[in-house]
Design a protein that fits this description.
The complex is a heterotrimer. By secondary structure, chain B is mainly α. In chain B, 76% of the residues lie in helices and 2% in strands. The longest helix of chain C is centred in the last third of the chain and has 32 residues. Classes of the chains: A mainly alpha, B mainly alpha, C mainly alpha.
Chain lengths: 499, 476, 102
């Protein structure tokens, strides 16, 4: 086994091992914990950098281990995995910084939090690097298990209720997914991810069964990806602390679901084959409905995190929409939105967390004039919101542009209508917040945590959203630069549609 | 090659010694707990190298002499017995310290181990009866060890059921002998033809063994017995003792009876298994005490085992089905014992196990709760664990044959298991500022539970090696 | 009807009586007695099978089985009686309580 074989496993271990060690660390060992966390994150980023360079030059990074009589655990780095892994790695690093500061005053055990946090990231990386459906499902279920303790971290009755709903939805989805995978394996014998899909030869004998399997798998994945009507857990899970919401909504859980949908359609079924089987229409319809539904619900939420939650429900379906439209341009749009939405949404959640933690503000109606009090945070929030609406040169504009163009080229002009409607709705629920924050007078004086220092809040709470907002801006501005998310999405699509 | 005989005799000798010389009981127990697994490992290597091993005890020839027979499946069962009992021995050392019942625990414990080893190494059906009885008697006495009225009634009930089961089994043995003239399992596999006496023999033996395995609806004795016994005893009962009778049933079915019995019998067992899964899970959902919840979980998981019968009758998936079933046996043994040990630690620390009052114990006993969580992962059948492998093999077996209804059942079972596990976990994770009386738990107790839970997890990764072992010596 | 067939039938009848009594009687000692009777029935059946061999010498294997079975039955009965005594001491009654512990 060469270094090329070990690399995927190493990337996984850089968060798994620190996580396990953190569990047994006594609560007081703050330095150790921080070192392990940051060390692991930096090491992971380094290894991911190597992987990015390698995959660009068509290296093969492959780790296999037989796990069942004729099935292997496969960690494989293709272009898609690398993109998802890079996103996870960067955002993990920033969220860890943020969480360390956020949880400083928490009475709960931080060892437990960071232990599960690291395991959660390992699961996400495992999902990203999975080379077949079995490996995917193993890490997918691990993700559910490791995120549950984070959701119920505060231990209050609402947290427990949210946790129960979360488990009910995600395990139900997991069960559907498992049946789909087992069925597929029994049917065709192989469940590996192959660029361009591998089920096309089976269309004759098994068409109906393949349709059922697709339905099962997408339902299972749709729970995590918050496709309506499987999205019910997401707003409830907002009771978790802000770092958890940030991670869950930008990187881990929803992205895992969306990523899974991308994998199933492109690398198991194959995009043209999916079109042949008529599977894309229902998917696109569900995605379109979710986009509008999520945005409409978001309009009526006064709690900031709940509004962001419904915004996530809506935005993640852009990815599903891109997947459902046949054609490389739409594919590019969907895939690049994986990264863009991640960056923008995590910015918004970081900011929401800052408002809650520093000023005790949870509701939008209390946010009058908050821009004067916390200008940098609000600036980041503004950038993120503009990106969500789709204003150039933010990254969100790039995704919408490609989705729209893709829809037109595929002969589906109604996609443009959906996109426009959604952007308008986004504006309708984001612009008022921005207006309130900058241009309204505050209702009373702000209650603030003492000893913040010169900055408006702790530097570890302030810098992560600024960095992610900046990244979202750069992803849009420098979209044509090499190694940008857009460029990478083009690479993936080119390899996907290779004859 | 006298290793099989030693594997049986060492715990037997230890039992006698600990009874006659109570002072050395703990050392004798620990010594056995270390040496016996080593012997099993050596036996395993022998079998992987040379195939199945036969041994005549004392040099006496069959049919009057006792023949010990070891193939891959026996060694796998011996191995898991050694691991589970070995770990629980260390746990019990701390659990029973300073207790009068500790004096009687050790001899009974060693007798139990010896009986299990002898059972897995038996080569003829009458020897199986003897070992079954020895196993039952030791288990009953161990259940009665806590001396409470509930424990004593539970033990009595268990004893009566156990004796009835053995009697039924013995009658089956008698019929089988009358029809075929031999007791040896290997010979019975080759001779024999369909006849009413074979069918009756099977019915009697199956009835007896099903009673002893607590398959629904013969499960009524299990929850009180497992819930009222001391924690180490509950652990070994759920993990191994009920599996022993299942092991015998499985052996006899696949080796001797299957060609001659109406295939709808297999479906009937599957239906009973389904009933067990549903009923056991539902009862676990409403149980008020933690140990009762876990005991009902055992009832449900035993239902999974009996799905081997209908699944193995699907010709294409015969091999996969019984691999899945035995993988269930192995992982459930580790996982369930871990769960009972963790529950035992909870009782040791707080004095009770009423679920409603167990708020926030994740913070007070993190190691035990982690063990409980890991073991539950295997019980529910989530990856990466032995339980997932077993579930996958079953799903594969069912889907290859197109029998999708078993799939639905298996998935429903997992979801119900999730429900009752999380019913406990919600309480455990919730934040509770109240101060509660607690006794500090010795670290050995918590870490043995964690060790067993990790075994269940590790089983999820070594499936190819384990299935190779199971196939050694061609058991089927 | 041969003598061994008679023995076998009687054995089966005893087994049936024993199992029936086990179920309907609630007093513990009666249950234990019922099990003994059932056990004797099985042993009788086994003795009957020993006569199947042609020739004057009966088959020794069932005899060995019966002897072992008797030993096992004695130990089991001893344990059962001891338990029954203890239950009587602790609960004051020699009947199994029917309620499940909750």
């Amino acid at each position: 086994m060469t270094f090329d074989n070990w690399l995927p496993l190493l990337i996984l271990l850089t968060s798994l091992l620190p996580g396990i060690v953190i569990f047994v660390l006594p609560e007081e060992r703050v330095r150790w914990r921080t070192t392990l966390n940051m060390g692991g994150a930096i090491l992971k980023l380094g290894l991911i950098g190597i992987m990015i360079w390698g995959v660009r030059h068509e290296h093969v990074y492959d780790f296999r281990m037989p796990i069942l009589p004729n099935i292997e655990l496969v960690l494989n780095a293709d272009a898609m995995s690398v993109m998802m892994t890079a996103l996870s790695g960067v955002l993990w690093f920033l969220t860890t910084l943020y969480a360390i500061a956020y949880l400083e005053t928490s009475p709960q055990s931080r060892s437990r939090f960071f232990g599960f946090f690291s395991l959660c990231v390992s699961s996400t990386v495992g999902i990203a690097l999975a080379g077949n459906l079995i490996t995917f499902i193993m890490f997918y279920e691990m993700l559910t298990l490791t995120t549950y303790p984070l959701v119920v971290f505060r231990g209050t009755p609402e947290s427990m209720r949210a946790g129960r709903i979360y488990i009910a939805y995600t395990f139900g989805g997991g069960a559907a997914f498992l049946i789909g995978v087992a069925w597929l394996k029994a049917l065709v014998g192989s469940v590996a991810f192959t660029e361009g899909g591998m089920l096309a030869p089976y269309v004759g004998a098994y068409a109906t069964q393949l349709r059922f399997i697709f339905f099962l798998m997408i339902s299972g994945l749709g729970v995590k990806a918050a496709l309506v009507p499987l999205h019910g857990w997401l707003p409830k899970a907002m009771v978790a602390p802000a770092p958890v919401s940030a991670l869950l909504h930008a990187v881990a859980v929803v992205k895992a679901g969306a990523f899974g949908i991308v994998r199933v359609v492109y690398d198991v079924y194959g995009i043209e084959f999916s079109g042949e089987l008529g599977l894309l229409q229902p998917l696109t319809a569900a995605a379109a409905f979710t986009i509008i539904y999520g945005s409409v619900r978001a309009l009526f939420q006064d709690e900031l995190k709940k509004r962001l939650a419904f915004s996530t429900v809506s935005q993640v379906s852009y990815i599903a929409l891109g997947v459902g439209i046949l054609g490389p341009i739409a594919t590019i749009g969907g895939i690049v939105h994986l990264v863009n939405q991640g960056l923008m949404k995590i910015t918004l959640f970081f900011c929401a967390g800052n408002f809650a933690e520093t000023l005790g503000v949870h509701h939008i109606s209390h946010m009058n004039g908050i821009g004067r009090r916390m200008p940098w945070t609000m600036a980041a929030f503004t950038l993120g919101s503009l990106g969500m609406i789709g204003v150039p040169p933010m990254a969100g504009f790039i995704s919408k542009w490609y989705l729209g163009t893709g829809g037109l080229t595929a002969g589906k002009p109604w996609v443009i209508a959906i996109l426009v409607a959604s952007s308008l709705l986004n504006a309708a629920y984001f612009l008022p917040i921005i207006y309130r924050a900058w241009f309204r007078e505050p209702a009373g004086s702000w209650s603030a945590r003492p000893s913040i220092g010169a900055l408006e809040t702790h530097w570890m709470l302030l810098f992560p959203p600024l960095i992610t907002a900046l990244l979202a801006l750069l992803a849009g501005l420098l979209a044509d630069a090499p190694f940008s998310p857009l460029e990478w999405a083009r690479l993936i699509t080119a390899r996907e549609y290779r004859p | 090659m006298t290793l099989p005989a030693w594997i049986v005799s060492l715990p037997l000798l230890a039992a006698v010694f600990t009874f006659v010389f109570p002072r050395i009981r703990i050392w004798a127990g620990i010594f056995t707990a270390i040496i016996t697994p080593l012997m099993v490992v050596f036996l395993g290597r022998e079998i992987l190298a040379h195939g199945a091993i036969q041994m005549q005890v004392g040099g006496w020839q069959t049919p009057l002499g006792i023949q010990l027979y070891a193939d891959g499946l026996s060694v796998a069962m011996l191995g898991i017995t050694a691991i589970v009992i070995g770990c629980i021995t260390f746990y019990a050392r701390c659990y029973f310290t300073g207790d009068v019942s500790s004096r009687y625990f050790w001899p009974l414990w060693m007798f139990l181990w010896s009986a299990l080893n002898a059972l897995f190494l038996s080569g003829d059906i009458f020897n199986l009866y003897v070992t079954l009885e020895l196993l039952g008697l030791s288990a009953v006495a161990l259940v009665a060890l806590s001396q409470t009225a509930d424990a004593l009634s539970a033990a009595m009930r268990y004893l009566l059921v156990s004796l009835t089961g053995s009697l039924s089994y013995l009658m089956g043995v008698a019929l089988l002998y009358a029809a075929n003239g031999t007791l040896s399992i290997k010979l019975l596999a080759t001779t024999g033809a369909a006849s009413p006496s074979i069918a009756t023999a099977f019915a009697l033996m199956a009835a007896g063994l099903i009673m002893k395995s607590a398959l629904f609806p013969m499960h009524f004795w299990l929850p009180p017995a497992h819930a009222n016994a001391p924690a180490p005893v509950s652990a070994v009962l759920s993990a191994l003792v009920v599996k022993a009778s299942f092991y015998i049933l499985m052996r006899l079915w696949l080796v001797i009876f299957e060609p001659f019995i109406n295939p709808s019998t297999a479906q009937l067992m599957g239906v009973l298994g389904a009933g067990a899964i549903i009923w056991g899970s539902v009862q676990a959902l409403v149980a008020e005490r933690l140990k009762l919840l876990v005991a009902y979980s055992t009832v449900a998981q035993i239902g999974y085992l009996f799905l081997i019968f209908p699944l193995s009758s699907i010709t294409q998936s015969n091999h996969t089905a019984w691999q899945g079933g035995f993988y269930f046996v192995l992982s459930h043994a580790c996982a369930k014992s871990a769960v009972f040990l963790a529950a035992g630690s909870v009782i040791y620390s707080f004095g009770h196990d009423r679920i409603k009052e167990l708020h926030g114990i994740v913070r007070r006993m993190p190691v035990s709760m982690f063990a409980f969580a890991l073991a539950s992962v295997s019980l529910i059948g989530l990856p990466p664990s032995g339980g997932f492998i077993a579930k996958w093999l079953y799903l594969n077996a069912a889907l290859t044959g197109g029998h999708w209804w078993w799939c639905v059942l298996i998935i429903i079972g997992s979801l119900l298991a999730t429900a009752y596990v999380f019913r406990f976990f919600s309480r455990a994770f919730s934040y509770s500022p109240e101060v509660v009386e607690e006794r500090p738990v010795p670290w050995i107790m918590e870490w043995t539970a964690l060790g067993l839970a990790l075994c269940a997890l590790i089983l999820g990764f070594i499936a190819p090696a384990v299935t190779t072992l199971l196939d050694a010596g061609n058991p089927f | 009807m041969t003598i061994s067939l008679l023995y076998a039938l009687v054995g089966v009848v005893l087994l049936g009586i024993g199992l029936y009594s086990l179920i309907i009687y609630s007093h513990l000692v009666k249950k234990i007695l019922a099990l003994n009777v059932a056990g004797s029935g099985v042993f009788l059946f086994l003795v009957a099978t020993a006569n199947q061999t042609s020739g004057p010498v009966p088959d020794p294997v069932p005899h060995a089985m019966v002897l072992t079975g008797i030993v096992v039955a004695v130990s089991a009965t001893a344990l059962a009686l001891a338990l029954a005594c203890r239950i009587h001491q602790v609960t004051g009654t020699a009947r199994l309580t029917e309620n499940e512990p909750e």
